[in-house]
Design goal:
Blueprint (H helix, E strand, L loop, with lengths): L8 E4 L2 E4 L3 H12 L3 H9 L2 H13 L6 E5 L5 H10 L4 E6 L2 H13 L6 E5 L12 E7 L8 H11 E12 L5 H23 L2 H13 L3 H10 L3 E8 L4 E7 L2
Parallel strand pairs: 3-4, 3-6, 4-5, 6-7
Antiparallel strand pairs: 1-2, 7-9, 8-9
Helix pairs in contact: 7-8
This protein binds S-adenosylmethionine.
Length: 252
């Protein structure tokens, strides 16, 4: 009889779960919030997520004719902007693991007339189903913290970038201002789940949101992970006092 030892575990918010269960736990969150995702984003961030995303687009350097992957693209905020930038000769792929989020995103983009240069792929960031050296730019906005094996995902992203291609990771991060941290903690753990309950009747998913943010690697750690994945010129910019950080790296 072989001793297989304890099952590997990972975190799902503050909970420790078997590693193999995290994908379905995260799927449950996004199936539940998909229909109200955009309303909640505006409410929770008081519209500030639009500024964070605008800065990401500006940093991306995307131009007409480029190939762009909006990974964990959800309801397509970044995809829409990239679709305008790359024009008819370019292409944007919105990839996401969750079919409910893709469906809301696809319907929204088609309603707004974003057709022609946008396509949709259901995929796990850890195993991207694209050939090597495909994209000029990859963005992953508020997605990486939900991924089980972040190192594997970063390597997968580097593989599908063209040499010289850019990866931009927009994600919640760590503030170093004690007063801001206190206000932010109170808001995240006491007010946010209540807004979630009111709007989506789902307090747990918004508690997971707050917990997953606290469990996500800080700015310096994520920068190191990008370097380990083989990206160069890695750097980050804090936004809103470090509540959010935009990490940038290039495939050599
Ligand atoms: N990027 C969009 C935005 O900024 O509004 C959506 C962000 S939403 C908070 C996170 C998205 O990550 C969800 O749509 C979820 O399905 C997706 N996601 C979670 N784990 C993933 C994975 N392993 N691979 C790809 N997408 C994933």
């Amino acid at each position: 009889m072989s001793d297989q030892g304890p099952k590997p575990t990972t975190h799902f918010g503050f909970k420790e779960v078997p590693t193999g269960d995290k994908v379905s736990a995260v799927a449950g969150v996004f199936h539940s919030v998909a229909a109200k995702y955009d309303v909640m984003n505006d409410l929770m961030s008081m519209g500030i997520h639009r500024i964070w995303k605008r800065q990401t687009i500006e940093m991306s350097g995307v131009r007409a004719g480029d190939s762009v992957l909006d990974l964990a693209g959800g309801t397509g905020d970044l995809t829409m902007r990239f679709s305008d930038l790359v024009g008819p000769k370019g292409q944007v792929i919105l990839a996401d693991i969750n079919e409910s989020m893709i469906k809301v995103g696809r319907d929204r983009l088609i309603d707004k007339g974003f057709v022609g240069n946008v396509s949709y792929v259901q995929a796990n960031a850890e195993e991207l189903p694209f050939p090597d050296n495909t994209f000029d730019c990859i963005t992953i906005a508020f997605g990486l913290r939900n991924v089980t094996d972040k190192d594997k995902a970063l390597v997968s992203m580097r593989r599908v970038l063209k040499p010289g291609g850019r990866l931009l990771v927009l994600e919640f991060s760590k503030t170093d201002n004690p007063l801001l941290t206190k206000v932010y903690d109170t808001y995240s753990f006491n007010i946010l789940p209540k807004i979630g309950k009111l709007i989506t009747n789902d307090e747990d998913s918004y508690r997971y949101l707050a917990e997953s943010i606290r469990m996500h690697p800080d700015q310096a750690t994520l920068k190191g992970m990008m370097e380990t994945a083989g990206l160069v010129n890695c750097r980050f910019h804090n936004m809103t006092g470090g509540i959010v950080a935009l990490h940038y790296g290039v495939k050599p």
